[in-house]
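Subject: two folds for Thursday's group meeting

Dear M.,

Sorry for the delay on this. The cluster queue was jammed most of the week, so I only got both jobs back this morning. I'm pasting them in the order they finished. Each block is the input sequence followed by the predicted structure tokens. Could you check whether the formatting survives your parser before we put anything on slides? The first protein is the one we discussed after the seminar.
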Amino acid sequence: MKLQKVILLTTAILLSSYEVPSAFAETPQIESALQADLSSTKTILYLNSNRIENNGATQTLSGTTVVKQGVTYVSLRSLAGILGYTVTYDAAAKAVNTAAPDGTVARYRVNTKTYEVNGSGQPMSGAAYENKGVLMVPFTSLTAAFRIPYKLEGDRITLSRGGSGSETETEKPQNEPPTAYFRTDKDQYRIGEPITVYDESTDDENAITSREWANNEPAFFEAGIVEIKLTVKDKQGLSSTYSKQIEITSDVMYTKEEYGKRIAPPGTSIDINEMVLSFDALPYTYTTEPYILFRTSGPESVNEEGILYRDTISGPTRLMAHHKNSLNTKARFYLIATNRNDTAVSIQIESAGLAGPSPHPEVTGRMAGARYLQSTLTGNERSSQQIEPGQSVAIFPQLNAAVAAPGDIVSMNADLTSDGPIEYTMLMVRADQDPIAALPSLPNLNPNEAIVRGTFADSTRVFTYDGIVGQKPERLPLTDNKTDRFQEGMDGILNTVAINSGNYGVLYKITLNHVSPGTLIAFNPRGGRYFGSARVNQQVVDIKSSGSQQSATVLYRTKDQEEKVEIWLSPASGSNLPFALFFLPLSKE
């Protein structure tokens, strides 16, 4: 004990001559801590407390054991003393050394995320720091350096130690709960002023699996105190919640409508007061690309096993499917490609998006369309397949991979091309049936609802506009059968004329070469609820609209100079038509 007292005295003298002495100064209670019975086998720390129990005796640490950003910190000197280790300060190295009786030495420096164990550098889960004159270090750096087994139970950390203070037994560190934390760029905002939130939540295993926000709005439009809350959960199911209050003053930066037009990001649904139909319509003329559309959505509700649609197509082909299992049992949907030629035929899949099974038609339609547009950018669905003469193959295995329960819907949009004629057959059978074996005996189902199926030529419409857009309110009405006429084709099974009501499956490629600075481009539903997507300048933007004609979804805003804007979109299965794009000049502030 005399040697330990000499060490403490020497440390105090060294600290008094160092420019940051407060970082390592401790209370006289450590003197008694050093006298703890080293044969103790159980030490308990309490989170968010300076309480510690050592072999049944309660003591006080000089710093609170605290969790910060997913890291548990402890007072180095207090805990080391209780564990029977010596602590000295190396003024030349500006470091604190902690030594165990077995000769292990750990060295720490303030404001660093590394430490040394017997001279070897090691990472820490957080940086050592000073708090009111107490050096705080990550708890797990001590347990790792000195091989101390521990267990976390609620707010208690239990350490198991050997009789000499030297531990040879090891135990895997217990998972600590994540720490929810965020900050805002300000504490006070005007009405309609954008709020920036920085999520700085952490987890000791970097395994946060969910974030649940409350009141995390991009702006607020009523004055008062607002509490924002975040709850995070890790893969072990442990969670943490953090909340913060901000003040919304009575000063107005933007009204709700102004904010929507000027600030709301792409994909946001906004309210508008304008009468869109009063806007001037752009002169709509288009060219086409020779994709033949195979549309299979009638019958939408399938009440029996059978063939939903069939036709033979060669060359560029677009597939659009949307069906609901209305059997009283599970089923699967298949697209069968049959080669009835004398030579092999190659199929090249270019892009595809599939969604479902799901009981929600708008959701499956939107997700299939969004994935299809995304694949046109990434090419992640590209593949090729050769079909031998007389062979029938189920293509797009993702379509039938999942079983559709009664009431479930599947949707698909895809582009492919073949170097010869291929007979495409869309069918539904019970989940345990072999579709190829069942194919010869399946009946052709009639479209017994007012839902269209058919084969339609020239199913890509290309609109290129060289005039200036955005100098005044303008619109581009689509899928209305007036400005934009519906396709006429044939039902390949019934051999009758088919009208593609709504132009579902048609891909619109819109290029606006001269869009004025400060122009809002938005999607305006004209026929009701619409869930879809658009590809805008190499980004896929979600469209979610309740169907009000006095609403719109932000697609894009030009900045402070004229821009070329390219938009691709295809009417989403399960949603209502028609719709319009509008272009609105934003006045300078």
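Second protein, same layout:
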Amino acid sequence: MKKYTFHILTIFMSLLIFVSCKEIKNKVVQSSDKTSALKAGYQIEPVNIQNVKLTDSFWLPIIKRVQEVTIAYAIQKCNEEGRFENFLIAGKQKIGTVRGEMPFDDTDVYKIIEGASNTLISAPNPKLDRVLDSLIAIVKIGQEKDGYLTTWRTINPAKPPAPWVPVIEGKRWESLQISHECYNSGHLIEAAVVHFEATGKRNFLDIAIKNADLLVKTFGDKPGQVKGVPGHQIVETGLIKLYQITGKEDYLKLAKYFLDNRGNPNNHKLYGEYAQDHIPVVQQNEVVGHAVRAVYMYAGMTDIAAMTKDKSYTDAVNNLWNNMVNKKMYITGGIGSRHDGEAFGANYELPNLTAYNETCAAIGDVYWNHRLHNLYGKSEYFDVIERTMYNGLISGISLDGKQFFYPNALESDGVFKSNRGSCTRQAWFDCSCCPTNLIRFIPSIPGLIYSKSKDVLYVNLYASNNASFALAKTDLQISQQTGYPWNGKVAISVNPKKEGQFTIKLRVPGWARNEVLPGDLYSYKKASTQKATINLNGEVLAIQPQDGYFTITRNWKKGDKINLNFPMEVQEVQTNAKVESNKNKVSLEYGPIVYAVEEIDNKTNFDKIDVAAGDTFKVKKEANLLQGVNIIENSKFKAIPYYSWSNRGVGKMKVWLDYKEN
């Protein structure tokens, strides 16, 4: 991260005068102190990003941009808007009133620390490490003696920053439905776990443990404890991660308590569908309400299903996932169709101009699907992850790393201000959850590429990289060289330390198997006749994908080479007839990329663009357009990757095009 220079530290000059100038010393916990709970429940585990060195021409520039531009930019914005100052005011190191407009502004700081920590896992960076120690010292100042940490309530419990947070007596936990106290804890814990894994230092982890111990003491059915569940979920997955590294079962039990009591009217006054609190979670079979809250909850439910083997949880997450991918997911992988409540709509309710598709929801959906893959090992979960990542997730950040979409619409008329008052990306939001969520997620992407079980390696995503890790009987080095997603050729070198038998499962993307997404929500108008192929050491293997993977079990030796070819062609996608908004329309895909037409490329005929039966298309690389993309063009229009739209000013855009039969 060459651009992390001392100018970043100057951002904190006015703040750090309150922090001790002495060197911050932390107890370093060796890996032997971690418990076997780390792998509890899941049969498959991701290969840590520390072991995957990305060299990819698609993902590496995006990750570097976040590391070198977006993190520093977000730190500057958080400083300008008082995110750091709130911790100092809460800790009485500075006099003032709460700054910001949201009761969860603290979490922006935590998410920045998490993303930067993921960066440290990938590569050591002493300057960034010192910046994080400074931020963590500021956070510690705002923590109350018993571990409580929500700065707005500590500063003045009678005056929350948002008028929609009710205050009755000014007590903690009195407005759990909307106060975001537990949400703040969830992001704190998640970030602290990643920071600990990155550095081995306990300075942030101890803050999180103190906070989590307060939650354990506070919530439950014992006399004197508070009954209730968080309004906005995420503390559940945070507590489970803390359990995984500490082995303290109280954290797992509290996470399950929160989930078990959602929809329980004997525990609290129910919050309703908006917060997935209308019926018990194990009875839920339709994704409803606020989409970000939902997928965070489903991720926690999947953790519980894995760790407790509770069939009711397993059945529920399967039912919910099936409902989502069959009836409520956009072609871009986006979820949550309604601006009202940032929520899932009814089955098949997928409008384009008014689509919400919050960036945070896309990120949360990746987290959920990754857990499902760790539980079941099915390729379909990575079909969802891949589609989301290449389309409706990275669309949330501009090509310069400083502009953001909160919602991600599939159509623009240049007038409707879809993005919280704007027709294009914004530099920041009063509710800045999406920019900082992108910061925490994008540096973690290398950790999605590979997974492993005892003697099985899963190759889930295709991106150029060099990876080193251990299977059960051997240390293994593996490397990929590919131009994916612009072409479907992948070369993989397999180099075990010693010759030995194990299995490699190579995912055949859904689009290469004529499957847009799992289920029947989308289909290709005409199935491709081209087939994915695989060869080993120059010999074509006559094997077919099983459960979405090419599976090879053999005695592997140094120098073995796998070559994959996933033929790409422009494909027309149609939607299930029950989706009213897309009737007689098609969208275009090339490989995993969904395309859009933008007015700037089609100024004279934008409103008349259509696709007719028999149309032919040409794919062309334009190295100087939108930082280098493949475009689709024919005699009538030019289309660009959806993720890159709105980087050239305000204008019209659409993903779904009128279709005309000859």
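Two things I noticed about the second structure. Residues 59-80 form the longest helix (22 residues). The longest strand covers residues 475-482.

Cheers,
T.
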